[in-house]
Amino acid sequence: MEPEVQTGSARIIRRARGLVGVYDPPGDKSISHRALLLGARARGETVIANLAEGRDVRRTISCLRVLGVDVNLGPARGEARVVGRGTEDGRVDFHSPDRMLDCGNSGTTARLLAGVLAGQGFEATLTGDASLSRRPMARVAVPLRRMGAEISLTPEDTLPMTVKGGGLIGTRYESPIASAQVKSAVLLAGLSASGLSEYVEPVRTRDHTERMLKAFGASIETRAGGGGRGEYSVRLNPGSILMGRELEMPGDFSSALYLVVGGLLLSRSDLTLRNVGLNPGRSEALRVLTRMGAKIEVVNRRMVAGESRGDLKVHPSKLKGAGISGSSVVWLMDEIPALAVAMAFAEGESFVKGAEELRHKESDRIIAVVHNLRALGLEVGEFPDGFILRGRPTHDGGEFRSFDDHRIAMAFHVAALACQGESVIHGYDEAVDVSWPDFPEVVEALARS
Ligand code: S3P
Questions:
Q1: What is the DSSP string of 426-441?
Q2: 334 CA from centroid of ligand 1 (Å)
Q3: 247: enclosing H helix or E strand
Q4: How far is the centre of ligand 1, averaged over its atoms, from the C-alpha of 329 (Å)?
Q5: Cα gap 252→245, rounded to integer Å
């Protein structure tokens, strides 16, 4: 069911003819949460460069501070120093919190922190905003309980979640759902467990946690099924002591994608995005766009701290429709709003199938995307697990809603730039603040009229 009203600021967006310039997108949000959490759990100091800005990552920082972790920001933009609370004998000396841990809008904060807390011998309660308080939490509670943590949720299996941790025993867990957040929660709990922890997922999800655990010195093995995208398992050996280190976050692929789509759709674009994270579990959207006829060059590809990154040169392109279904959907979850905008401007039919998980994100992203595509004047069919549309290269404009979801707001900002006339997005500013507070200023600086 579609929420009836959209509160918050309305932003008017006018046509642009190109995005021109060289730009380094903000640090990766997913990896930033992990750098902070592992840094807090490690021995010694972790120094992070290019930490993601935005409310979600600030929530992880404020929760860690309540647990007694010193996180110092600055002096440079995006710099953070985390004084780890890991001890010589492998324990973690967090403070028992004297208040609730407010995760705001951030599912990654709530679910990963649940894993960390499961290993601590005190009780803590995680809360969140209205959107996060609707999202499913049994998916993390089930494996963490199996490892020995006591976890309580509301009768609807939502936040607030109270975790009473300690005394965990490593377990083999075959997850029924493909979720990097659940995998990460189990691995973070596994760091405090006696015995081996093994996590098996039906389809391989983003593997930032595994890569970063290795970088911090954990003893961890991964085993992929056929094709790199099928079944996949991770084994974490007990007794690892994490050591603080220096880390530089790559640019966030999911954020960069809004500008990529803008660069493709606006005919006078000449855009280079530097230092973009290209982890295979994150950059599948490049393959989809290429199938649609996008001209995107990847140059200067390199590995830093176990993560691949490179620069993207984006050329204006005429796009044709494409379908997304099957196991690649897991690798595209956060990118579907931006891809839906590319589909709206592509000639012919496009569809997304097998993406039921989109209904459990910061908003019900199927409802949100379908609503906003219809606001462009397109005929769109909605399925329980996706949508179908027939795109066209020109649109007049639309009255869009953010659905209080940063990805919806940014995706339809880009759609608005590519429309002939003026558009409006309701509930814009507060939504964008979650992951990229200065997105509108960045777009303005790159846009050519
Ligand atoms: C994330 C995993 C994904 C993704 C989310 C960030 C992470 O969620 O959609 O934005 O940082 O692990 P799920 O684990 O629910 O698929």
A1: ETHHHHHTTT-TTHHH
A2: 8
A3: strand 246-248
A4: 13
A5: 21
